[in-house]
Amino acid sequence: MSRLSGGSIPSAHAELYESTAEFLKAAANPTSLALHAVAFRKRAIDGAGKTVDLETLLDPTLVQKRHAEHKRQFRDVKHKFIEQEAKRAFLHAITGEAPETVRDGEQEELAKQNKVKKARLKATKEEIAEMYAQALDLGKKSAAEHNRLAEETAEVAALHKSITDMELELARLKSTYPPDKRLTTSEADARLEAQQEELERLTADIASADACGAELRSDLSRRNKEVARLQRDREREEARAAEVRRQREAGGAGVRAHELGRWYAVSLAAYRSLMGIKSARAVSKNGLEIEYVDGATLRLYFDAGGRFEDASLKGHDMDLAELVQEARERNDPARLVSAVLAHLRPL
Q: Are 291 and 297 in contact (CB under 8 A)?
């Protein structure tokens, strides 16, 4: 110890060292236990209380064991004390300053200061926690604001691109249509009105065509039904004609004439129905009047030899000049009748 401190032990601890040395010297004497046996027994009985087995405590065989244990504990305390004193002496030898000592009440003062500092630290921690929560809130708001700004930036970029495209298109239109070829407002309005009128006319034509198409579809359906009926009549009359031929071959001229008359009448009725003829009658020696089911009336005129000469149409504004000329050249009034029907009932 003297080597570390470079001198004698400090005077502040001289008494403690002396007491320790005397205690160790007395403890090393075996007779010290006998000298203090009575006092030890009295203290053991008084301090045993209810939690310690008195017989075990007063067992003389355990005294030496407890003594050795206490001695070991005291030795540990001694070594720790010597170690601390050696550190203090070493620091004193290095720094040359007197070792600091703990004054009376210093621990209490430090405890109060520590308590105040802990309270201040707690308040600071709470303030930091509040600031951290505010920072998190600001972070969320900043993220939302960033997203909004990003969307607005994208929208602005899209608008900028659209404006650029419009400017390019405007430049192209200006180059395509120079000022001397551009329309004035009045000219554009006039052209627009003309286009609107044309559009209205086309719309009316489409509506008329749709109505005409519906009418034609209805007429076609009716004619298909009529053709089917005539087909059935034809089959029936052909069967009758076959029967008449069979009877004629077998004999009986009257029967054959009657059947031929019936066949001719049915064929004529079928022809009239197919041609849309309501009735046909002779109005004079050389004139024939044909009335269509549509209300129009066609008159045919023949010469003395039976050749077709002329025709007239009532109830319709159809021009017959060209058709009459063609029928006169070919002497084919039936073609004229069919042409008039085709005009009255266009497909």
A: yes
